[in-house]
Amino acid sequence: MTLREALKRIFWPYRRHKSRTVRYAFPLLFLASALLAANAIDTQNESYVYIQSDASSVQENDTFEIRVFAYANEPVNAVDIQLAFPPDQVEVTGIDIGQSVITLWTEEPYIENGSTVVLRGGTFRKGFKGEHLIAVINARAKESGLASFEVTNSTFLAGDGTGAEVTVGSSGREKTKLVIANADGSYSAVAPAGQESGLEASVTVRIVPDIDGDGQVTLADISRFITAWRNKTEIYDFSGDGEMTFRDFAIILAKSFMR
Ligand SMILES: [Ca+2]
Ligand SMILES: [Ca+2]
After folding, report:
1. Element containing residue 152 per DSSP (H, E)
2. What is the whole-number distance in angstroms between the Cα of residue 99 and the centre of ligand 2?
3. What's the chain's Rg over C-alpha atoms?
4. Distance (Å, whole) CA 27 – CA 33
């Protein structure tokens, strides 16, 4: 039996139900790429802030970094950026400003209300243009779950002597999510809309494509993924966005030993 035949067999009873999803997938994909392209053009002419995690999934007690970047489309010499993090799940252990474009901190970066990193400072003269690192936030994963980080404020002031506020547009990357898994590669989450199973609001999310743990990704794992997809009893999320989507299906297929 070839892989294609095997998949066809597994998918057959399922196809009828989901044919609609498949039919709409292409126009949606097209729309999504058109929107992304439009966004990319916009951001060329606007200043923005974005954050980046050095990992999409970690385990409890692991350390990781969230980097904060600023892009200025005109000279900016003062910034005020605030980043919210989930204190129950994540401990901020340090804020590294050694490589920062900011040289004069109005106050040393600090944590407000236990859950927001405040980065407020500037540079001499006209300031900076283009993309620069503002800070590296060092953190430790405390509790399993899906941790969200979000820029809640970004104010830029012009370095032209007016101190006028510079418009800060959207980068589309002001938020990032990080999966914090238990040692067995799973975590509990609130079921996404449409994926609740009966009265259960809590589901187990697993992030390891080798579902049965035998050391390789085989048809058995793919079959379990598909069963979970149909029954919505468990969520397999290999992409780190907290949801089980077709992208996760593509990832498990890619990790499969049958190529
Ligand atoms: Ca396996
Ligand atoms: Ca996913």
Report:
1. strand 145-158
2. 33
3. 22
4. 10
